[in-house]
């Protein structure tokens, strides 16, 4: 089963649990006037759309016989465009590659960076609303009308109790990625690698002072992602930062051929 399919199934199961269990979402679903279900459903819908868009969109795969540049991929044994990187999972070079997304089973690259950023934003609010809803529901202990209130509480919310720790862990992962992608977007930054700590994926970002592509204006950097302004072909800037960039990407299997 592919990761995007798992993603949609897990979200559908959790949304079903919110409806089955005694929650505000359930009450709203069955007729009580409440905005909770609309918040959750809207976030879930937007999350699904952005994730699906990222899955079906070509992230920017480098075709053979692309334009000549001084950058050489040691894995593909060919010249690649400026800011293209090789993906070991896709086994291809991707233009402006940031990292490989396990959720979309696709690289986050030139054409999918915006979708992925919007996905992280909508997923963050979906998880935040869901966790708040679970906490509010679990705090309704005094409403349980049962001789054994503990047993009644567990039977009313056992699905939410199962989902809760996974949602908290997932929220931490999404929040970290969202902050890092926001920084990349605003600084026109580069990703040099990925590491995991306690199962949480963390991007290894190139330092801002070593990034030759930073336009030093937030709107100009953001325009390259949101409106694709001058983001197709980057020139090789003759700056001290470019030497730092060349040194940093060497660890990613990218050689610089000056001749």
From TrEMBL:
The family classification in the record reads: Belongs to the DHHC palmitoyltransferase family.
Membrane topology classification: Multi-pass membrane protein
Whether Membrane counts among this entry's keywords is: yes
What GO molecular function terms would the record report? protein-cysteine S-palmitoyltransferase activity
Specify whether Transmembrane is a keyword of the entry. yes
State which residue ranges cross the membrane.
7-24, 36-56, 124-145, 157-179
Write down the PANTHER family for this protein, in alphabetical order.
PALMITOYLTRANSFERASE APP, ZINC FINGER DHHC DOMAIN CONTAINING PROTEIN
Which InterPro entries did the record assign? Palmitoyltrfase_DHHC (IPR001594), PFA4/ZDH16/20/ERF2-like (IPR039859)
Enzyme class, spelled out: transferase
Q: Which organism is it from?
A: Tritrichomonas foetus
List the PROSITE patterns: DHHC
Chemical reaction(s) catalysed: L-cysteinyl-[protein] + hexadecanoyl-CoA = S-hexadecanoyl-L-cysteinyl-[protein] + CoA
Could you identify this protein by its name? Palmitoyltransferase
Enzyme nomenclature, EC number:
2.3.1.225
BP GO terms, sorted: protein targeting to membrane
Tell me the keywords, alphabetical order.
Acyltransferase, Lipoprotein, Membrane, Palmitate, Transferase, Transmembrane, Transmembrane helix
According to the UniProt record, one GO cellular component term is: endoplasmic reticulum
């Amino acid at each position: 089963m592919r990761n995007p399919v798992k993603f949609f199934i897990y979200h559908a199961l959790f949304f079903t649990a919110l409806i089955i269990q005694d929650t505000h979402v359930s009450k709203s679903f069955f007729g009580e006037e409440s905005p909770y279900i609309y918040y959750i459903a809207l976030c879930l819908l937007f999350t699904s759309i952005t994730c699906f868009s990222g899955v079906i969109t070509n992230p920017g795969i480098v075709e053979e016989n692309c334009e000549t540049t001084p950058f050489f991929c040691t894995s593909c044994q060919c010249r690649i465009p400026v800011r293209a990187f090789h993906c070991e999972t896709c086994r291809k070079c991707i233009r402006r590659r940031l990292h490989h997304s396990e959720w979309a089973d696709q690289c986050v690259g030139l054409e999918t960076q915006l979708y992925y950023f919007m996905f992280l934003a909508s997923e963050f609010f979906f998880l935040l609303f869901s966790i708040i809803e679970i906490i509010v529901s679990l705090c309704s202990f005094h409403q349980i009308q049962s001789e054994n209130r503990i047993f009644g509480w567990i039977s009313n919310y056992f699905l939410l109790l199962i989902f809760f720790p996974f949602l908290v862990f997932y929220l931490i992962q999404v929040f970290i990625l969202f902050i890092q992608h926001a920084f990349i977007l605003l600084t026109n930054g580069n990703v040099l690698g990925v590491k995991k700590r306690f199962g949480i994926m963390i991007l290894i970002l190139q330092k801002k002072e070593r990034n030759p592509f930073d336009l030093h204006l937030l709107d100009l950097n953001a325009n390259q992602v949101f409106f694709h302004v001058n983001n197709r072909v980057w020139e090789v800037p003759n700056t001290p930062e470019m030497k730092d960039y060349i040194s940093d990407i060497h660890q990613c299997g990218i050689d610089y051929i000056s001749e």
